């Protein structure tokens, strides 16, 4: 067997919970197939890790501060050499695996699964496979607002109150660039071009 076949799979983990980070570090340390290069507490720090490290697989949460799992996947669409991404989450919403697949994720594993399931998912994804639970990919949310993340819904509600980008950044304790990033994604999902159209869409759904 060649030396390349013995090369461990390099991994970076991102999760908002320090206990989950520590648990995954211990789990990966117990399997010689994997090397954990770094951990991150949110999506923005995970993207920073991509800028400074070369690794094979990212294991990320879905609900994270500053930039969530959806935001990470959307950011990586512009990066052709990005690592493969597995979303590992305790969020039980049935639409998340389908969303992860549509955004280019390579795998999904629920935190309710046995730890070995995550390890096998990482190994399969590193080899080029996609690993997802059974889902009907023909299904799609009927209401475009249903496709928005919690953070995007917060921004949309703030827009409806007349808040400026700078005020929203201050209210939510995020950077102005992050506000602009979320607004661009929000507009794309709603099929609108500006905040006035987005607010009209929001008000229409709340009559």
Entry summary:
The protein has 9 helices and 5 strands. With 207 residues, it is an alpha/beta fold.
Number of discrete helical segments: 9
Order of helices and strands: EHEHEHEHEHHHHH
Number of domains: 2
Beta-strand share of residues? 5-15%
Number of strands: 5
Largest sheet: 5 strands, parallel
What is the CATH superfamily label of the largest domain? Response regulator
Trace the largest sheet across and list its strands: 2-1-3-4-5
Q: What structural category characterises the helix and strand content?
A: alpha/beta
How far apart, in Å, are the first and last alpha carbons?
Answer: 66 Å
Tell the overall outline: elongated
What's the CATH architecture name of the largest domain?
3-Layer(aba) Sandwich
Helical content stands at 40-55%
Indicate the radius of gyration in whole angstroms.
18 Å
The low-pLDDT segments are: none
Description:
With 207 residues, this protein is an alpha/beta fold. It folds into two domains: 3-126, Rossmann fold, CATH 3.40.50.2300; 144-205, Arc Repressor Mutant, subunit A. Helix content is 45%, strand content 13%. It is built from nine helices and five strands; from the N terminus they run βαβαβαβαβααααα. The chain has helices at residues 18-29, 43-52, 69-76, 96-102, 115-126, 150-160, 165-172, 176-190, 195-205; strands at residues 9-14, 34-40, 57-60, 84-89, 107-110. A five-stranded parallel β-sheet has the order 2-1-3-4-5, sandwiched between helices. Strand 4 (84-89), helix 4 (96-102) and strand 5 (107-110) form a beta-alpha-beta unit. The model has no long low-confidence stretch (mean pLDDT 87).
